[in-house]
């Protein structure tokens, strides 16, 4: 338990470490941050899910014009932003969560780079790497919160 606590604390933010020291080895918020109203469910359903699904479809279809490239860039950038939200406001419970958020952050940044180069095949490959984040986090943290 202590080891797990230390691991999680190291992987999450210094602010979380401070909180954990004050409140004991509690588990981060998971379903919601500490102070902001957005639930993880809303974050997933309103931001992460739709942008991931839309991006997947659009990359498969290959963006055909400037408008389509602009749209996929927006989707990738929003997924990148979501990775920061996942780590903010005391939401992160452990190293698995932190690692998956990092995969989402780096993966979406890689997708965005390929999009900027208008490389649809490269973007699709980077997208496949990015989506490893979804399963990695869900495997551990989603099953306990069924909807
Ligand atoms: C760092 C953790 C984490 C990552 C990364 C993550 N999710 Fe989630 N996701 C969750 C959690 C926790 C839930 C359950 C939330 C709840 O119901 O309280 C969830 C739920 C969902 C849901 C269902 C909505 C719900 O709450 O039932 C969808 C859709 C979803 N995620 C999509 C994605 C996609 C797509 C990705 C990858 C691009 C992703 N998620 C990455 C943690 C994560």
Overview of the structural elements:
The chain is mainly alpha-helical and 147 residues long. It has a single domain, classed as Up-down Bundle (Four Helix Bundle (Hemerythrin (Met), subunit A)), CATH 1.20.120. 73% of the residues lie in helices and 0% in strands. It contains seven helices and no strands. The chain has helices at 2-11, 14-23, 40-61, 66-87, 95-116, 120-130, 132-141. Helix 1 runs parallel beside helix 5, helix 4 (66-87) packs antiparallel against helix 5 and helix 5 runs antiparallel to helix 7. The chain starts with a helix and ends in a 6-residue tail after the last helix. The model is unreliable at 5-26 (pLDDT under 50). Residues 30-31, 40-41, 44-45, 48-49, 52, 86, 97, 100-101, 104, 131, 133-134, 137-138, 141-142, 145, 147 line the site of heme C.
Straight-line N-to-C gap: 29 Å
Mean pLDDT: 86
Count of the domains: 1
Task: Determine the CATH topology.
Answer: Four Helix Bundle (Hemerythrin (Met), subunit A)
How many β-strands, per DSSP? 0
What CATH first level would be assigned?
A: Mainly Alpha
Structural class: mainly alpha
Q: Helix count?
A: 7
- Helix and strand sequence: HHHHHHH
Radius of gyration: 16 Å
Give every kind of bound small molecule, once each: heme C
Uncertain segments are: 5-26
* Assembly type: single chain
Helix content: over 70%
Strand content: under 5%
